[in-house]
Design a protein that fits this description.
single chain; 7-stranded parallel sheet; 7 strands; binds nicotinamide-adenine-dinucleotide; binds ligand 0WE; NAD(P)-bd_dom_sf
Length: 258
């Protein structure tokens, strides 16, 4: 029997079969969880519907986290299918493309900063707030995806790093706020993975190669590995862990002079 048997888990951020969110959904389904997926727009709908069916689910709902009405409608729809919710996986980030190029001070703008923070950090609190009622009193878990750029200045990651620092602080504040009702809140800080969000980032290949050469395990991490850690953090096996950031990066973050 899987360690997520009987759990109902909402997974956001599936855009392709390379998405970290997909690694999470598959790993959680394997452990016996019931899964619901969300898709950002109509273009992604049919793909996400099909991927939901691969994890035995017929629940695929629209969610653009830039829209308050989408967030409200999501939990209203979910409440019609499920009597409660055990976990939410937030696997969403966005900054305008120009923000992720060149020098930070040259690139940053008021609008780029606001968008990155709204879509990549505020949205996690917004999902926590809207999902709170359905999660109350059932040992719930919230999980989000971060990156090393939250705590180190990584070239070109720029305002996304500042937004990930906000996201990790969000994890701590949400965990203090929701702990009393039994909801735990954590993040995984994943190593670089070739996904749609990484496509078109110039030099991403070089970055993967550099990490592979230097990291303790001498290879990059996979979405299956991130998914398995995510399954653990959304399960009762991690019942004593909240407010924390778990690095799933083949050890890269422990290096000094890599
Ligand atoms: P991905 O492109 O597969 O997933 C990103 C998701 O964000 C997509 O599904 C997209 O639809 C969604 N999204 C963007 N704007 C949205 C909006 N307004 N409303 C709803 N959804 C929106 O890429 P990924 O690498 O799987 O990214 C998932 C998470 O993992 C992100 O938070 C990213 O920062 C984080 N992460 C990625 C890496 C990496 O190297 N790929 C490393 C560490 C952390
Ligand atoms: O969080 C991310 C990337 C998130 C992301 C990606 C895009 C590309 C398309 C956010 N916004 C956008 N906007 C777009 O228009 N990662 C952890 C992957 C990533 O991106 C980098 C990295 C790493 C790692 C960018 C520069 C340097 C390193």
């Amino acid at each position: 029997m899987g360690f997520l048997e009987g759990k109902k888990i909402l997974v956001t951020g599936v855009a392709s079969n390379r998405s970290i969110a997909w690694g999470c959904a598959e790993a959680m389904h394997k452990q016996g969880a019931e899964i619901a997926l969300t898709y950002q727009n109509e273009k992604l709908k049919s793909r996400v519907v099909e991927m939901a069916s691969k994890c035995g689910s017929d629940i695929a709902l629209p969610l653009d986290v830039g829209k308050d009405e989408d967030i409200e409608a999501l939990f209203a729809s979910l409440a019609k299918r499920w009597d409660g919710l055990d976990a939410i996986v937030h696997s969403i980030a966005f900054a305008p493309r120009e923000q992720l190029e060149g020098d930070y001070v040259d690139a940053v703008t008021r609008e780029g900063f606001a968008t990155a923070h709204e879509i990549s950090s505020y949205s996690f609190a917004a999902l926590a707030k809207a999902g709170r009622a359905m999660m109350e009193g059932r040992n719930g878990a919230l999980l989000t995806m971060s990156y090393l750029g939250a705590v180190r200045a990584v070239p070109h990651y720029n305002v996304m790093g500042v937004a990930k620092a906000s996201l990790e602080a969000n994890v701590r504040y949400l965990s203090a706020s929701l702990g009393p009702q039994g909801t735990r809140v954590n993040a995984i800080s994943a190593g670089p993975i070739r996904t749609l969000a990484a496509a078109g980032i110039s030099d991403f290949r070089d970055m993967l190669k550099k990490v592979e050469e230097r990291t303790p395990m001498r290879r990059n991490v996979t979405i299956e590995e991130v998914g398995n850690a995510a399954a653990f953090l959304c399960s009762d096996l991690s019942s004593g862990i909240t407010g924390d950031v778990l690095y799933v990066d083949t050890g890269y973050h422990i290096l000094g002079l890599g």
